[in-house]
Amino acid sequence: MNYLNNLNVFKRRRNTSSTGDSSSAVSSPATPAIDAAGCSGAPAGNGSGTPQRRKKKSKNGRKRTISVVPISEVTEASLELWRTLPPKIRHDPSMVSFQQVELEHARLHGDCHEDSFPEIQGLEEDGAEEDDDEEEEEEDEEYENEFITINVTNEEGQNKEIGHVKEKKEIPKPHVHHLAGHYIGNITPPKHDDINDTGQNNLDEDHPFRKYSKIICLFITWLLIMSFMVVKDEKLVEPKHLSISPGKTKAYILPHLPQSTRIKVTLEGTFLSEPYSNITEHYLEVYLQMLSSTLETNATDLFSASSAKNISEPWYIPIVHPYLFDSAPIVKEQRLFDIIDSNYEQLHQTNGGLVRLMIRSNIQASMPIAIRYDQSPVNRDVGVIYAAFVLIFLYVLIIWEIVHRTFAAVIASTLAISILAALNDRPTMEDIIGWIDVETILLLFSMMILVAILAETGIFDFLSVYIYKITNGKIWSLIHCLCLCTVLISSFLDNVTTVLLMAPITIRLCEVMDMNPVPILMAITVHANIGGTTTPVGDPPNIIITSNQYILKHGVTFLTFTAHMLVGVIIVVITTNIHLRIIYKNINHLRMHEPKELKELRRNIKVWERAAGKIPPYSKDANIVRETLMKKVKLLRHQYKKKMTKGTVPEDIYRSTLEELQREHPIKNRPLLIKSGVVCVFIVSLFFLESIPELRRLSSGWAALLGVVLLLIISDKNDMDAVLSRVEWPTLLFFAAMFTLMEAVERMGLIDWIGHATETIILSVSEDLRLAVAIIIILWISALTSAFVDSIPVTAMMVKIVVALSEKAYLGLPLQPMVWALAFGPCLGGNGTLVGASANVICAGIAEQHGYRFSFMDYFKLGFPIMLVSVFVTTGYLIMAHVVFAWH
C-alpha cells in the first residue's frame, strides 16, 4: 500500500500539535501522548544519550526538529532498511522523517510495534549489533550503569520486570581538591613501593636481563674509574717566582724534557687582559728555546747563543705601567706552545739537549712574575674525543633513564676526572672544589627555603584560586596567563627563582582543573628561559656578558641591552604560544581524564559509523539511509571537535568549584605572609642593586641567603629539620656534579675546539657577508651547544671570541650585533633539553616532589622544536635589525 499519500494528513496533525509537547525531537519521554490507535504520538525522544541535533525556532518561538532527509524522499525500500537499524539509531532525532512515515504507516495499518515506543523500550542497542571489539566492550561497560531495570509489584506481590528505562543522571559535582596537599583531585599519588629511586616503575624487576646488564656496565665503569684514580697521582704544578730585570732576558731552564709536543705555560703578574692591549706600549715577550749539544761541546758553550734555537712563536703579553705595579690586580695568562715534530725528535735524539723559557720586557723597571709550566698537558685532539664520549655517556644514562639523573651526573663527572688522570692531568681536590659554582648552589638553596616558608602561608593556593577566577576556567586563558606572568617575572629575577615561585602555583591550578601539570610546567619553564633573555639580570649568561669591561665600554648598558632584546623576546613569546596551540590542538592532551561527554560522543560516532557501514550502497534507497547516517556522523564529529578544542569548564561546575575553593583556601597565616613579603622585597632590591656596577657589593647568592636568614629570625622558626626537608638535595647535588663535569670537558679542550671552529668559519667568508654570517654562527653555535652543555662555560668562551672578532679592525664587525646574538643563543638554547638550563632541572625536581614526573625525552619532544623555531625567528629578527637596517 502506498501510505505516503497520507503524509499531508500527518503534517496537518503535526502542525496542530506543535503547540503542545508533541515535538518529536524534544519531547520528554516521561509523558508520551498516546493516540486512539494506541501508538505514541512522539516517535523519538532524546533519551538515547546522543547529542542534541541542531534545532530551528519556528515563528511562534518554539523549537522544532530539522530532519536531515525530507519526508518526500523516504521510500518503502529505504524504510525497510531503516527498520533493520538498531533501535538507538532509529529513534534518534535525525531520523525523524523515517519515524514519521513509520508512525503514519502504523496508524493506517493499526499494528504498533514495541519499537514504536522508545520511552518504554529504552534506547540500548540490540545484543546482535554489539561489536566484538574489546575497546567497544570496555566503553559499553562504562554505560551499563546508565540503565536501570524497573520492577513493579503486581497484585499477587510478585515482582515483574517491565523494561529498561534510562536513568536520568545528574551532572556530577566536581570534587574540590585540597590544594595544601601534594596529591589532589582525581590524581592518585604514586606509591613509593611502585617507584624506585630513579623515578621509574620497577621495570628492572620485570626484566632481569636489563637489570643485570645495567649493573654489569656500571660496575665496569667503576672499575675503569678506580684503576685510573689509583694509578695516577694528582698533578701539582708549583709556581716559580721570577724577577725580570730591565733590558735583560731571563732564561728559565726546564728541569725535564717535554713528554709531548706541547708545553703549557701559565704566568701571573700585573698584566692587562687582551682587549686592552692597544692602550699600552709595555709588553712581556715569552718564547721557547732548544739547547742542543754534542760530545765535543763543553758546558760553557752549551748556554751560548750559538747553540740555542727558537722553537716557538713569541708570546706578547701587555703589562701595566711600572708605577701601577703595586696597585694593579694580578692577572693570570696561559699559553700552549706547540713544538714541531722535527724539533721534538732532535731534542730527544741529542745528548744533553735542554729546553729553556726566555722572558724579557721593554720597561725600565724590574717586574715580578709567577710562572707555572706543564710539560705533559692534555692532547686537545684526543681530549675532545674523550670529552664527547663522556657527554654521550651522560645523555645515554639520562635519556634512557638507566639511573636517576643525579646519579648519572655523579658517574659522568667522576669518569671525566678519571680520564683526565689517564691523560696525566688529574686535578687536585682544591681544583675540583673550585670548579663548583658555589654562588649558584647558594642561590638555589636559599630560594628553596624561601619558597617552602611561603607555602605555609597559603599564598600559592590563594593565587591559584585568583587566577582560576580571572580566567573563568578557560584552559588556554589559564596557560597564556601563566606563561606571560612567568616571562615578566623572569625578566627581573633569574629564571631559577622564577620557576621556584611559579611551579607550585601551576601545579595547584592544574589539579583544580583536572589538567596534567607536566605540559604546563614545561611551558612555563620554556617561558622562564625566554623571559630571562630580556634584561642583563634575567639569566646567568647575560650577567657574564654585561660584566665584561670591554663590552660595557662599548655602549652596552642596561637600557640598550633591554631595548634590543625586548623586541626579539616579544616575537619569540608570540611564536612560542602559537607553537603550543598547535602542539596541544587536542585539548584532551592537557587533561588528566577525558570528560564523560567526549567519551559518549566518541562512542556514538563509532556506533553510527558502524551502522552506516553495514548498509550496502547498491541502490538509491540504500543511499538515502546511508546519507542520513553519514550526515549524522558529520554532525557528531563537528560537535566532538568543538568540545575537544573548546577547553572550558562548564559554567555550573566552574561556579561551584570557585565558591568552594574561595571558601576553603584563604590566606592561612597573614603575619607570616607579611614578613615573607618584606623579605622578598629586600631580596629583589638587592638583585637590582647588583645590576649597578657602582653598587655591586653582594652577589645573588649572598642576597638570597641574607634574606632567608632574616626571615628565619623574624618568623621564629625553631624546627629546622622541617625547613631543611623541603630542600631539593638531589637537585643541588646534580648541579654540583654538572659544574664539575663541564670544567673537566673544558679542560679536555672541547670548549676551545668549539670556539676555534666558530672563529674559523666566520673568518672564511667575504667581508660583505661577514656580519650576517657572524650573527648566524654565534647565535646557532651557542644555542645548540647550550642545549647539551651548560650555558655558563659556553658563554664565557663565546664572549672571548666576540671580543676578539670586534678588536680586529680589518674584519669590520660591529660589537653590539654579535653581543645580542650571543645573549639570545645560550638563553634560548637552554630550552632544547632537560639539562640545557638550570631552571629545567629545578622544575623537574619540583614536579617529582609533587608526585609528577617528566623524563628527558618528554621535555625534549616539547622543548627542542620550540628552541629551533625560536632561534630561527630570532635569526630573522637580528638579520633584519642589524644587517638590513643597521640598528647598532
TrEMBL record:
Report the Pfam families cross-referenced here: CitMHS (PF03600)
Regarding the membrane, this protein is recorded as: Multi-pass membrane protein
Q: Where is the composition biased (Low complexity)?
A: 16-33
Residues of the region (Disordered) are 1-66, 124-144
Presence of keyword Transport: yes
Main location per the UniProt record: membrane
Q: Which UniProt keywords apply?
A: Membrane, Transmembrane, Transmembrane helix, Transport
Domain Citrate transporter-like as annotated: residue spans: 395-825
Q: Where can this protein be found?
A: Membrane
The question of whether Membrane is a record keyword is answered with yes
What ranges does the record list as Basic residues composition bias? 52-65
Query: Where does the chain cross the membrane?
Result: 382-400, 406-423, 435-455, 475-497, 558-584, 672-692, 698-715, 769-789, 862-887
Q: Which GO terms describe its biological process?
A: transmembrane transport
Name a GO CC annotation attached to this entry: membrane
Q: What is this protein called?
A: Citrate transporter-like domain-containing protein
Write down the species: Anopheles dirus
